[in-house]
Amino acid sequence: MSDSLKQRLLNDVKDAMRAKDKPRLGVLRLITAAIKQREVDDRIELEDADVTAILDKMAKQRRESITQYEQANRQDLADQEIFELNIIQTYLPEQLSEDEILTLIQDAISATDASEMKDMGKVMGILKPKLQGRADMGSVSGLIKKQLAG
């Protein structure tokens, strides 16, 4: 069996320490701290899906920060967020194309017989585990609304 995502992160922390790669090490420590925090708070051992959810949230925060920093003409801060985002994304599953997402949405709508906005929760319930870390859930939500309103 392959290493868990968490184990891969911990191994990469050690590699970054050996390589004296301080910028990368800093980002990896942010990630492992977020994982540890959740494990301590919830008193559980996180599975890969939980780690992916944390990474997905961290990536979303970075994307929002990049937008804000660029609007404020703070490219130095935006560059740091971009650097962190690039490292976080190496641990996320490959992103799905819009066509793949639309196909999954259509399948979920068919599976739930969704036909109006009040059915959106059912559709999201089916999609979230499949798309976590592989698509921006905010844009997925918008695509579902379009499909259900159409």
Plain-language structure description:
With 150 residues, this protein is mainly α. It folds into two domains: 5-89, Hypothetical Protein Yqey, Chain: A, domain1 (Orthogonal Bundle); 98-149, Arc Repressor Mutant, subunit A (Orthogonal Bundle), CATH 1.10.10. The chain has seven helices and no strands. It has helices at 5-18, 22-42, 48-71, 75-89, 98-112, 120-131, 137-149. Helix 1 packs antiparallel against helix 2 (22-42), helix 5 packs across helix 6 (120-131) and helix 6 (120-131) runs antiparallel to helix 7. 21% of the residues are buried. The mean pLDDT is 91.
List the helices and strands and how they pair.
Elements: H1 5-18, H2 22-42, H3 48-71, H4 75-89, H5 98-112, H6 120-131, H7 137-149
Keywords:
150 residues, mainly alpha, 0% strand, globular, Arc Repressor Mutant, subunit A, Hypothetical Protein Yqey, Chain: A, domain1
Order of helices and strands: HHHHHHH
Overall CATH architecture of the largest domain: Orthogonal Bundle
Which regions are unreliable across 5 or more consecutive residues at pLDDT < 50?
A: none
Please indicate the percent range of residues in DSSP E strands (runs of 2 or more): under 5%
User: What level of helicity do the residues show?
Assistant: over 70%
Shape: globular
| CA radius of gyration | 18 Å
CATH superfamily of the largest domain: Uncharacterised protein YqeY/AIM41, N-terminal domain
Beta strands, count: 0
Characterize the biggest β-sheet. none
In DSSP terms, counting alpha (H) and pi (I) runs of 4 or more, how many helices? 7
CATH class of the largest domain: Mainly Alpha
Helix/strand-derived category reads mainly alpha
Tally of domains: 2
Stated plainly, the CATH topology of the largest domain is called: Hypothetical Protein Yqey, Chain: A, domain1
Mean pLDDT: 91
Distance between the termini: 45 Å
